[in-house]
Predict the structure.
Amino acid sequence: MKQLVLIRHGESQWNLENRFTGWVDVPLSPRGEEEAKEAGKKLQAFRFNQAFTSVLTRAIKTLEIVLGVIGQTDLKVEKNQALNERMYGDLQGLNKAETIEKHGAEQVHQWRRSFDVRPPGGESLKDTAERVIPYYEKKIWPALSNGESILVVAHGNSLRALVMHLNQLSQEEVLELNIPTGGPWLFELDDAGNVVNHRYL
């Protein structure tokens, strides 16, 4: 059985401040660092062959903390923009509550939770999936299919796009998917890449 562990980075400073983050490179909050340490503790029994992450600091730092806790600081790590968070365009840096006051709750909900509606200057979840899934198929699945145990540390929306693919969720189902920060999510896959089992650790 092939093992894939997904982790959404620990809480970032802008998660804490309720801001749209997207591709802005903000650090982890102190709580986010603690979440990463807790994730590492839950993965003590695992030994990974390779890790993948985005090019954003909050994901990279989460991965570094996890690898430090499990004693695999020399693990091969590939960083790629394909795993970056969804790009929120003109909303980046704005407080979510203030954005609702300005544009209305319905419009902001549509920007955040529609599958194919882009915020001004940004990406939809569909756009995010169109870079995440090909990257998975080109880079991550080949490593898994070789029998390697893989760790991916990324972001709420890039992981939603990946889980949509793994669990064959519909466009409607993926909109209900919320991935908590810092929680390791184990997927076990068969030789064809089908998910046999998945659970949070």
Notes: The domain at 2-200 is CATH 3.40.50.1240 (Rossmann fold). The mean pLDDT is 97. Residues 125-145 form the longest helix (21 residues). The chain has eight helices and six strands.
